[in-house]
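Lab channel / #folding
Pinned by the channel admin:
"Please post every new chain as: sequence first, then the structure tokens as a reply. Keep commentary short and put observations after the output so the thread stays searchable."

First post following the new format, from NK:
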Amino acid sequence: MNMNTKKALKVVLPIILALISIFVVSKYAASPEFHSKTIASLDDKKTTVMELTAASTAASAAITLIPGDTATPIAEKLADLSTYFLLVLCAIYLEKYLVTITGYATFVILIPAACLLFSINVFWKNDMCKYLIRKLAVFGLAIVLVIPASVKVSDLIEKTYDSSIQATIESAKQTTEEIDEEKDEKKGFWASITDSASEAVEKVENILNNFVEALAVLIVTSCVIPIIVLVFFVWLIKMVLGINVNLPMKKS
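Reply from TO:
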């Protein structure tokens, strides 16, 4: 194989690869059906967050019915949790949309761009061009894998806490119903705690602690893990391919 043939192959093959990436691979990578398991898992997580939000809001409103102002700070804290649950919900929606968008961006934009630059670099040798090719390829592979992988890791963690989260929701619902049913009569709920406001406060404090624990799990699984998985993929690709994707450091 002579030199001209090798150059031609180095130009043509990346272009063919780019076309396959755009017109074939991207249709699967950006398809909701291809990511059906990931999307279903995110939908389940979304349902859990919405249930927790509704339960904490209802519990907050009900707790204000406890005689005295002792439980008021707890009711306010529960109401504040709704904001954090909303942030988690936004993170889940973002993951749900990005799972298809990243597939499109990788195989329609990033990979074809890397292939095109590779073909150009055959005639125009440039170290910065090589650096950009590698960085586009690494970044594209990382972002297309990060959400499915992070959702899988999150599912493993959430299985451990799923029963406690569901127990938190049921406990909050039960306490809310008891307070609502007995708000006009000093029996039932109040009698069950020996008419003691301090015992009532202790009960709702446990509910608050359970909500905080559930929120912490959701923040870790929905916000922290995707970032950690992305960093891990970048590191793994660097190790396997021997690619340095660090930005050039400024000389002091």
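NK: The chain is about 85% helix and 0% strand.
TO: also worth noting, The mean pLDDT is 82.
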